[in-house]
Amino acid sequence: MGNKKKLIIVSIFLVSNFLLYAQTLSAVFDKYSEKKEFRYVSISKDMINLASLFGKEDAGNSQMLSRIDGMKVLTLKAPRKSPTAHGFFVDIEKAITSENPFETLMEARDNGVFTRVLNRQTKNNKTDVVIVSKSDSVQHFIWLNGTISAQELQNMIKK
């Protein structure tokens, strides 16, 4: 076998292994949304806009909500140290530290609850915002996508 063929085979093997182990946000939601231990909610842009019509009047939040394209939530009612929660958080960590890693905007610990808010800019000038919350009995993973600035997020967190 020639060197060129060996190089092609090795390249295909490396790329396929990378794709198998690379975790994306979509992959995490696909993997866990059908499992009976998890509650999964997906909210479209239209539903978010509709909900903002009935919310408290706050021009800044209404403008920001109008730029959210979608929201997905996974909730696991299980102890933080359970094998299911451990695997779930390993997959989340892989997704948020992948080739386009997230930046941490906030971390908080309060009464046994750990919450982390992260964001990143995507290639199409969208923003992914992830909120990970861990407690002794309930775990949350929330993903927002849209055209939201880091400043808007920080202002919303401060409120």
Describe the structure.
There is one protein chain. The chain is of the alpha+beta class and 159 residues long. The protein has one domain. 42% of the residues lie in helices and 32% in strands. It has a 6-stranded antiparallel beta sheet with strand order 1-2-6-5-4-3. A hairpin with a 3-residue loop joins β5 and β6. α2 (25-32) packs antiparallel against α5. It is globular.
Looking across the biggest beta sheet, what order are the strands in? 1-2-6-5-4-3
Oligomer: single chain
Report the C-alpha radius of gyration, rounded: 19 Å
Which bin fits the share of residues in helices?
40-55%
How many helices? The count is 6
Average of the residue pLDDT scores = 80
Strand elements, count: 6
The percent range for strand residues is 25-35%
Question: Spans with pLDDT under 50 lasting ≥5 residues?
Answer: 6-22
Major sheet: size, sense and barrel closure? 6 strands, antiparallel
Structural class label: alpha+beta
Topology:
Elements: H1 3-21, H2 25-32, E1 38-44, H3 45-53, H4 59-66, E2 68-77, H5 83-96, E3 103-110, E4 113-121, E5 127-134, E6 138-146, H6 150-158
Antiparallel strand pairs: 1-2, 2-6, 3-4, 4-5, 5-6
Helix pairs in contact: 2-5
Index terms:
159 residues; alpha+beta; 42% helix; globular
Give a nutshell description of this structure.
By secondary structure, this protein is α+β, with helices and mostly antiparallel strands.
